[in-house]
């Protein structure tokens, strides 16, 4: 059973070590930690980190992000082939002081929506109290200086995702167009599908802790609390 | 040849610095006739304005000199004291924490400036007056041990040659450092300086720059004084006022090789070069990294 879900973005700059002398976005890190804190307060027996990956699959729960892939001067360490979204999720759990069981679930970028949802449903069917930490980013084409430059459709696209989350209407997430998400460089798409699948039988209450696009990538931090049926 | 010095902390005044920290020493000359922008800080109020300026630009040390390096009008010890000691006291009063260096080779001058608050004796003429080290020891001041080859103070190199210039640099500077320690100078306050242009032709200064890692490998903190010097001018065929680019290129190489103190006219530009090289070396993070990480 799912106790709650936290939604966080997965930019590398979430790791304080890679932004140099300037913390850059401390408020984003604080929001993510607050979301993870809320997740952990539901008393999970296992935390499942879900994030986009090259292929659908699980990684060893002891895996950690190798910061050296982004900042070689920081030194290499961690798990070389770990998808960064999962590594950043693991980092947030470490920062929150979580030492319990972890499941690192990658959602394949080119997987079908139904397959991703199926992955979520499997998580929901686990017997343990399971909390989801979903690492997912919106469009990276939100401004002229964004990584993918401006695509005017991105604002409406991300607003739709945020509305689905705010209202707890996760079925709306399963209707998000995969091809459009790819065009808008919204890498979080497969993770949203897993989330929608996992919470299919619930109507969670949502609290949005951060929503913004300071560098042209849409970041959304939210906590979805599941009330036992 | 290797001397008993572990690379480590450098102490100057009340401060101490770990190896990755690179320090900018700003030149403030109380002379009417130094080679670069002659006379610009001859007037005391202009000199103090210059101190305010270099401190604001990020200088860690000011190096106050009263006698130009080049041959010229005689400046005796009394005149040198008149030019510098009172000014050192004024700078000390204005900046209690600032590291003050005195560019002098004379022990009589050293005594007066240390009494006035100097923290470091920059003996550019390579131990010509052996009693200067005793003064440093007496006042707990630091000492720069420079290589001048066979050259006497205020002379220019004349057909100078070395079988191996860097070997001579190491022999002379390390011997001075050893003598300074024996005289009672705190080893943590001793710095060595290859002294570009001093007792060297341009080729020698280029060689010293290229092989500066051999000097930093001794573990003694290395000071370099490159600023707008003739080896830059001859290499690029440019007059003193057009040597900043060449100076900064040389600065980058010395920083890459691990020199720790940079005696300069251009504080702000030097600071940027040092910060850049420190980041390339991995000693300092970028001020702010977001590109590709959002």
Notes on the protein architecture:
The complex is a heterodimer of chains A (229) and B (294). With 229 residues, chain A is of the alpha/beta class. In chain A, 31% of the residues lie in helices and 21% in strands. In chain A, strands 3-4-2-5-1-7-6 form a 7-stranded mixed beta sheet, sandwiched between helices. In chain A, a hairpin with a 6-residue loop joins strand 6 and strand 7. Chain B is built from 10 helices and 10 strands. In chain B, helix 2 packs parallel to helix 3, helix 6 packs across helix 8 and helix 9 runs parallel beside helix 10. The longest helix of chain B is centred in the middle third of the chain and has 19 residues. Chain B starts with 9 loop residues before the first strand and ends in a 13-residue tail after the last helix. The interface between A and B is medium-sized, with 19 and 11 residues.
Tally of extended strands of chain B? 10
Order of helices and strands of chain A: EHEEHEHEHHHEE
How much of the sequence lies in strands of chain B comes to 5-15%
Could you give the order of the helices and strands of chain B?
EEEHEHEHEHEHEHHEHHEH
Count of distinct strands of chain A: 7
Note the quaternary state here.
heterodimer
Coarse structural class of chain B:
alpha/beta
Helix content of chain B: 40-55%
